[in-house]
Specification:
5-stranded antiparallel beta sheet; alpha+beta; 10 helices
Length: 489
């Protein structure tokens, strides 16, 4: 109810002067006027629900596309798995070129790195003196050791120790930063701090020798920088060797193998053999086709297919009890997609010479559109991977010559691609929603003006009726006074 103050200070309120209920009248009239807006709002709710439903459908098609991509990947079908009878001694993994087979691996010796350790000092901050360390990679020769053969392609590395870099910690850091092929560390115990050097890589060619030159020679080999010299061939050796650089020795199917590394990646095509410890006898290693991995991908694909089929069935069905249909009931895009999914299964395939239908390998469509699987038949089909690959993934010149999963992949690619069913339908729904929003905005503005006009009109009517009521009361009073005076005279 509106209230106003007139020019002479009197107060008036809509409906107070005449008894006319302006608010109630305007509210009821506006309820009629707002019916088109209510209808637009209801339509917008339906459109938003439809956009959401198609979003869920698109997500399910994307999942089907992902699983079909995984199943049609040629690397999956050429993949293999390896197994070791003693994985604690010999572990194996396969690559792209591995072929099925079996091998006997006997490990006599593991590859090792050279390790040398200096005499103990008081602490890691103990000082030696300035000078240079020359570190050379190579192999020791002779039995007993009588010479050193430098590693081809690994020139000597000179590590310069400056006047302010003579602590054990600084020398360690300088060696590690030099790229000399060795790793330095400090080991501290009750006896003190020792500098220990170890080859970064295993193998007899990764042994090393160290020569030391002091800027100011104190003449004592066991002190200063010369305390870090090492030469197993009879030269100056103040450090002690605790581990010798050596190659791994093994036999594979009776063939002797020597390797600088404990990981044999080039001995058998596509097979990586990791030697973990010496064995008492031959360890059986087998390589087989990756049937388990393929079965899992098949299971994943049909799981995604069934999720999609179940969603379509529920959203397109009519519930007789509630007398209501699903969000996609009668939707032509959904009907078309559902029909295409079924048609891809109905047409037999000529890709495989062993089977022509999915039912031949135990896969059949149910009345609800989902696929059921006979595990026994599928396991049997996995025994013939070349033909199973054709039946599922072959890319033929036409639909008849293509595998079933390849057909569904093509359907998903088309529906999800540019100009596909989802892009077109989503664009159409969003355009309709945008038009609806604009219409609501326009109508809301018009309704606001209409309400303002009505309130002004009925407020004016209320004011006029109040004036008329006042005039009527005055006239009544005057007539009563006139009648009284006339009667008394």
């Amino acid at each position: 109810m509106s209230t106003s103050i007139n020019g002479v200070g009197s107060v008036s309120s809509a409906g107070l002067g005449s008894g006319l209920d302006v608010n109630s009248i305007v509210t009821q009239l506006m309820a009629v006027e707002q019916r088109p807006l209510t209808q637009l709002q209801s339509a917008a709710t339906g459109l938003k629900s439809e956009v959401s439903t198609f979003g869920q459908l698109q997500s399910l098609f994307s999942a089907l596309q992902d699983k079909s991509n995984a199943l049609t990947d040629s690397a999956l079908w050429s993949g293999t798995t390896a197994n070791s009878a003693d994985a604690g001694s010999v572990s194996v993994s396969t690559g792209a070129n591995a072929t099925a087979g079996s091998y006997a691996v006997n490990v006599q010796h593991l590859a090792s790195s050279q390790t040398v350790t200096a005499a103990a000092l008081a602490s890691s901050s103990s000082m030696l003196n300035a000078g240079t360390l020359t570190i050379e990679l190579g192999s020791w020769t002779g039995t007993p050791t009588s010479g050193f053969s430098a590693k081809i392609g690994s020139p000597p590395v000179i590590v310069t120790i400056g006047a302010g870099e003579t602590s054990l910690t600084s020398i360690r850091d300088k060696i590690n930063a030099s790229g000399a092929g060795v790793t330095a560390s400090i080991v501290t115990d009750a006896g003190g701090a020792r500098l220990s050097l170890r080859s970064k890589d295993t193998g007899e060619q990764n042994a090393f020798r160290i020569s030391a030159t002091e800027s100011a020679d104190d003449g004592v080999a066991g002190t200063g920088l010369t305390a870090l010299a090492y030469d197993a061939a009879g030269g100056s050796s103040q450090m002690t060797r605790s581990e010798t650089a050596d190659n791994a020795l093994a036999t594979i199917n009776g063939i002797a193998i020597a390797s600088a590394s404990n990981t044999l990646s080039n001995v058998i095509d596509g097979l990586t053999v990791s030697l973990l410890k010496p064995t008492a006898g031959a360890v059986s290693v087998s390589v087989a086709a990756n049937s388990a991995g393929i079965k899992q991908k098949i299971t994943d694909f049909f799981g995604a297919f069934n999720d999609l089929a179940t969603f379509l069935h529920s959203q397109m069905a009519y519930n007789a009890d509630s007398k209501s249909g699903g969000a996609l009931q009668g939707d032509q895009t959904a009907v078309s997609l559902q029909r295409a999914l079924g048609n891809a299964l109905k047409q037999s395939s000529t890709a495989s010479s062993s089977w022509s239908r999915l039912s031949d390998i135990g896969i059949a469509m149910t009345t609800s559109g989902t696929l059921s699987t006979d595990a026994t038949q599928l396991d049997s089909a996995l025994g013939n991977l070349p033909e199973l690959k054709k039946l599922l993934t072959a890319s033929g010149a036409d639909s008849a010559g293509s595998g079933f999963v390849r057909r569904w992949k093509g359907l998903a690619d088309a529906a999800l691609g540019s100009g596909g069913a989802f892009e077109n339908r989503t664009a159409s729904l969003n355009a309709r929603l945008s038009r609806n929003t604009r219409s609501q905005d326009d109508l809301t503005q018009r309704l606001s003006l209409t309400e303002a006009r009505m309130r002004a009109q009925y407020t004016a009517l209320d004011s006029k009726m109040a004036q008329l009521n006042g005039l009527s009361s005055y006239m009544t009073q005057q007539l009563a006074a006139f009648n009284k005076s006339t009667s008394g005279g």
